[in-house]
Amino acid sequence: MSIRRWLEPILIVCLLIWPCMAASAEADGQALLTELAEAPASGKAAAITAIAESGDPRARHWLQAFADNKLSRMDDSGRFVVVLENRGRDWTVEDALTGEAIGEVSRRNLNRVRINNSLRSRIGNILGLLDLKVDDPAKRREAARELRGEVDAVMAESVESLMESAEDEDVRDYLAEALAIHRVQRGDVSAIDTLRGSLSSEARSALNKAASSDDPELASAASEALTSIEQLLKINNAAETLYFGLSLGSVLALAAVGLAITFGVMGVINMAHGELIMLGAYSAWGMQQLLPGQPGLALVLAVPVGFMVSASAGIVIERSIIQFLKGRPLETLLATFGVSLILQQLVRTVISPLNRTVVTPEWMSGSLMINEALSLTFNRLYILGFALAVFAALLLVMRRTRLGLEVRAVTQNRAMARSMGIRATRVDIMTFALGSGVAGLAGVALSQITNVGPNLGQNYIVDSFMVVVFGGVGNLLGTLVAGLSLGTINQLLEPWAGAVLAKVMVLVFIILFIQKRPRGLFPQKGRAAEG
Amino acid sequence: MWLTQPLNEKSTRLFLGLLGAALALVTILHLVFPQGHPMHMSIYTVSLMGKYLSYALLAVAVDLVWGYLGMLSLGHGAFFAIGGYAMGMYLMRQIGTRGEYGHPVLPDFMVFLNWDSLPWYWYGFDMAWFAFAMVLIAPAALAMVFGYLAFRSRVTGVYLSIMTQALTFALMLAFYRNEMGFGGNNGFTDFKDLLGFSLSTDATRLGLFIATGVALAIGYVICRGIVLSKLGRVSIATRDAEARTRFLGYRVERVQLFVFTVSAMLAGVAGALYVPQAGIINPNQFSPIFSIEVVLWVALGGRATLYGAVIGALVVNYAKSVFTGIMPEAWLFALGALFVLVTVFLPQGLAGVLAKLRGKGSDDEKDLTEKEAAA
């Protein structure tokens, strides 16, 4: 409210000053557009250039409207308008100069400024050049990128001068590439060198064309450049597969790490682990419902909330069921499976059987562009980082804190630990809560890349067990390594086997691997392993 | 002979007598009382009972490995489904030109997917003897390979459970693929006839019901025979102290492999009998949740009793039919609660309750109690 109170007077002042400032600009604009409308077909190109070079901030808008067949002149007043809606007898228009809405005007009163196809393609190029002069550096860069493959003989000169004056290095590189493509298209051998390291599809298509040209020198230079590009592309593809693999692997590792604690450290088979992940994902959704309009903040808050929700669910499960089934792992498995069914149905009944969407905050969407052929999506990058952070934190807890020490003591020799005064029951509860809470964290992360629904947990439970068993039970680092490597293997297989078959092959691989090394990649050593 | 030994046993006689009486009762209720009579049992209900009996046979197979070998298999649904698919392939070939597309050789779904010839693994399934042999051989082969690899490297306990679960999960994913040539996620359906008898007639369906009952009886006697034999004793010893049995000189992994394979074959037969009565087989039978549900039947009925597995399968499936009819959403709650309550409060299952009511337990149950007390 207070901001508006401040803003209002300022706005009013601006509105008062604006017409005086705008008056002269309008006169110029009117002249430019009249020139465009009245010039003969042969003179229109010059009129377009005049508009483009006027430096008028509205030039882009006019040319765009012109190219889209939307620029018209009103017969009665001579005002230039842009047609917004051209259905029916009366068309909705706005003033081209002031941008003021005029409302509906009879179609007959409008005289369209005519255009032909060659002019239209010319305008396309000029618009590209215009964008190179805007203030926003990101937009400038984008415009320079778009220009590659679009440069023609008419534009070449202005592109060159723009390139020399460009301050941004990226812009300069893009423009140099655009020029080189243009030169290669014209058969200039020396320009091929510039394209050698380029990964853009435009450069490749220009080189491809040159490689099949009649000029032997040009053709051989182009095909040589192409092979070096292919090489680069292969490396980039490999990097991309690796990134996808690691990101899938980090998801697997994150889903499995809670299990690595409850199963690996405590020896409790918790089939409800998947549902604890699901609870974490639903906490992310719930936080976003509580804080509408602030998805980012909600997601950050969901991290502790998801931990707490799943950890408390874990404590309830531990106290009500698991403590009575100590030393009977198979029965624990069955009982916790029952819990998983109940939790799933609970979510279905209380919330909805349908999937819920968790909004991705702005800072997590988009991607980090390494080069033309390789871009890393932010959400996966964040999850990778999150997974590593969770692992680091867990390792710290297990190795450096009193709790970790007690947990390890109780796992290794319960009776001895108790006789040394460690309260084993309390340690059990804390460990199970920790494992469950981490499952909740995994859920919060998963809510960003998958559907949040009652079946979320089901999809991850078998994978999670596979990761833990593969990595070696009772070994947190083993779980991380196992998750990352399984994810990478899966991604490597996927291109030639298909997604489902790749997964089947990974499962079969693990089944066979366990025959060879029943205790996983990194077996526990010492007496603790004998249990 | 080991197979006739159980027939001298009181409990086996009682079980077979009850089963025979139940079969006779259902047959009489269906045949003697005319339609519309309040005592009449519809053919739908008879087929439903038939399905329950095939589930009961599956439960007996699971109980054999879990109760007497100490292996909690979470993948027996896979053997059940493979037996079912073998039967389904035979039934699909029997459709012949009566399918939607009327192709003389290819089943409908293959025509639909533009396959031009039958894949090699479909050869022979037009012959009943071959298909019925496959019902036994295919699950047995899978169990042999998996078991050989697992038992040789001494994968037991929870590891084995997780591995069997992964096995059935992998098979489910694979069977969902159209490229596998097993009908993808639709599986097989629209069966017409079996051995020349139309599956839509009441007589055939009653016959299938009785055949399932007989198969259950035979399966029960086989399992009981194994349990009472010397091999069964070694198997129980393996369950209770694997390392000690091995040190005594027994080839534990061979015993395990044998029992596991027999169990897989029984599961396959159960699946084969299930398919014509259910009228459909699809990859859902491979889902880990189905396999784990089977374990619940056994746990509820009473582990290591065999007849408990039958009771558990019948009770849970009857409850499921009733529940899903009245309030479908409550079923998963009830099933989940059942898992929890049975494992926490009824470790011996219903059979344990029965035994307690009679004031005595069988030797096997005592073994189990002692083992748990020791653990």
From TrEMBL, chain A:
Lineage top rank: taxon: Bacteria
Compartment(s) of residence: Cell inner membrane
A GO MF label: transmembrane transporter activity
Keyword set includes Signal: yes
Entry-linked Pfam families: BPD_transp_2
Protein name: Amino acid/amide ABC transporter membrane protein 1 (HAAT family)
Source species of the chain: Halospina denitrificans
Cleavable signal peptide: 1-22
InterPro entries to which the protein is assigned, alphabetical: ABC_transp_permease, ABC_UrtB_bac, ARM-type_fold, BCAA_transport_permease
Predominant subcellular localization, coarse grouping: membrane
Transmembrane stretches, start-end: 242-261, 297-317, 329-347, 381-398, 429-449, 461-484, 496-514
Alphabetical UniProt keywords: Amino-acid transport, Cell membrane, Membrane, Signal, Transmembrane, Transmembrane helix, Transport
One of the record's GO cellular component terms: plasma membrane
UniProt keyword NAD present: no
Gene Ontology process terms (BP): amino acid transport
Topological type in the membrane: Multi-pass membrane protein
Entry similarity comment: Belongs to the binding-protein-dependent transport system permease family. LivHM subfamily.
UniProtKB/TrEMBL annotation, chain B:
Ranges in a coiled coil: none
Topological category with respect to the lipid bilayer: Multi-pass membrane protein
GO terms under cellular component: plasma membrane
Chain ranges passing through the membrane: 12-32, 75-93, 129-151, 158-176, 203-223, 255-275, 295-319, 331-355
CDD domains: TM_PBP1_LivM_like
Keywords for this protein: Cell membrane, Membrane, Transmembrane, Transmembrane helix
Top-level division of the source organism's lineage: Bacteria
Location in the cell: Cell inner membrane
Chief location category: membrane
Keyword Flavoprotein: no
GO MF: branched-chain amino acid transmembrane transporter activity
Name of the protein in its database record: Amino acid/amide ABC transporter membrane protein 2 (HAAT family)
Originating organism: Halospina denitrificans
